[in-house]
Amino acid sequence: MDFVTTRDELRTIYKTPRPTDGSIRKELKGLDGHCRSFIGKSPFVLIGSSDGAGNADVTPKGDRPGFTAVLDDRTIAIPDRPGNNRLDTLENIIRNPSIGLLFLIPGMNETLRVNGDARITVDAGLRERLAIDGKAPQSVVVVSVRAAYMHCAKAFMRSDLWKPETWYDRATLPTLGQIMRDQLTLADTAGDIDRELDEDYQKTLW
């Protein structure tokens, strides 16, 4: 199998967009009203990061719609709720602040992409502002926006992502308890693991 290894070779396969093309012109250097509105309605964002040594990671963050706060036209704040304490994204940010964000709104095929530089803060005022039911996030990722633009609907149209009639019957798929039992060779039953997970979810969402 041959692989493409240079940018010039890559551009023999794909057309080079012109500066006047919409795919280039749509990139903003900050957040306009549409971007701010989209973020304010989004309950879910994917965060792409890298440690700078070639080790990359993508992590999901979900919360009530608008959980990501727009501080100004070039700054957003993402609360970090209780998790598994692996800290893959946060440790990557310490090493390499460049991150990419993909905001989704359920039922909408278009997405918002934001690229920028991130820092981590435990500022008490900001954490309190982003608290849920009196529970403040453990830390906040503050992103300085370098680029923001809407991404077209093709991926979601091809995948029929939001059409329930295309979804698998959840009962035909393994539970996380079953997967963990098999992958980690655990002695507990899948049912016991799933019950423990459910109890943890109830206690540590915020």
TrEMBL record:
<protein>
    <recommendedName>
        <fullName>Pyridoxamine 5'-phosphate oxidase N-terminal domain-containing protein</fullName>
    </recommendedName>
</protein>
<dbReference type="Pfam" id="PF01243">
    <property type="entry name" value="PNPOx_N"/>
</dbReference>
<dbReference type="InterPro" id="IPR012349">
    <property type="entry name" value="Split_barrel_FMN-bd"/>
</dbReference>
<dbReference type="InterPro" id="IPR024029">
    <property type="entry name" value="Pyridox_Oxase_FMN-dep"/>
</dbReference>
<dbReference type="InterPro" id="IPR011576">
    <property type="entry name" value="Pyridox_Oxase_N"/>
</dbReference>
<feature type="domain" description="Pyridoxamine 5'-phosphate oxidase N-terminal">
    <location>
        <begin position="32"/>
        <end position="151"/>
    </location>
</feature>
